[in-house]
Amino acid sequence: MKRNIFLYLFVFAALIALFQFISSNKIIKAGADKIEKLQKENAKLNDSVEKLQIRILDIQYFSLENNDDALVYFDDLPLENPTRYIEDKLLETNENKGDNPLVPYEGMNNDFKINKIKVLNHKWILADFSDGQYWGDMVIGYDLKEDLSIDFTLIAHLLYARSN
């Protein structure tokens, strides 16, 4: 009888060991598959990040912050961030009652105001304007003087046709 109990215990222990072995192999295989899948996804995401970084560099090519030759013109002026200063001065022209004086169109829905600004270099700005229903773009020349006043000059402009 004692022998049968040991035999049953041995068989039972062997079955448990076999179950653990098979179960652990499945867990290890599932983990390895998950790791492989995550590595592929990570590689794909890294490629996407790299493409986006290249795109950002292309977009930033025409900006004052990345144009060392243009930034030299601001070395003698006490400006910490010339781009921000120029943008703020241009946005101040929106404070006038009525249409922005730089926008060569009369507002049809409301007053035309400048919305977005891109300072290209030490002389030119791209700007977007809108009255809420109609919109357009313009190229503005500017001259920053030593007393930190700025003269803005409209170079080119266009108003987009409204599409319904």
Short account of what is shown:
The chain is of the alpha+beta class.
Q: So what's the overall shape?
A: elongated
Largest sheet descriptor: 4 strands, antiparallel
Structural class: alpha+beta
Q: Order of strands side by side in the largest beta sheet?
A: 1-2-3-4
Instruction: Count the beta strands.
Output: 4
Strand content: 15-25%
* Distance between the ends: 94 Å
Computed over alpha carbons, the radius of gyration is: 34 Å
Runs in which pLDDT lies below 50 for 5 or more consecutive residues are: none
- SSE order in H/E notation? HHHEEEE
Number of domains: 2
Assign a percent range to the helix content. Answer: 40-55%
Give the mean pLDDT: 87
Number of helices: 3
Describe this structure in words.
This protein is of the alpha+beta class. It has two domains: 1-61; 66-159, no CATH class. Helix content is 45%, strand content 21%. It has three helices and four strands, in the order H-H-H-E-E-E-E. It has helices at 2-60, 68-71, 82-92; strands at 113-119, 124-130, 135-144, 150-159. A four-stranded antiparallel β-sheet has the order 1-2-3-4, with helices on one face. A hairpin with a 5-residue loop joins strand 3 and strand 4. The longest helix has 59 residues, at 2-60. It is elongated and about 105 Å long. The termini are far apart.
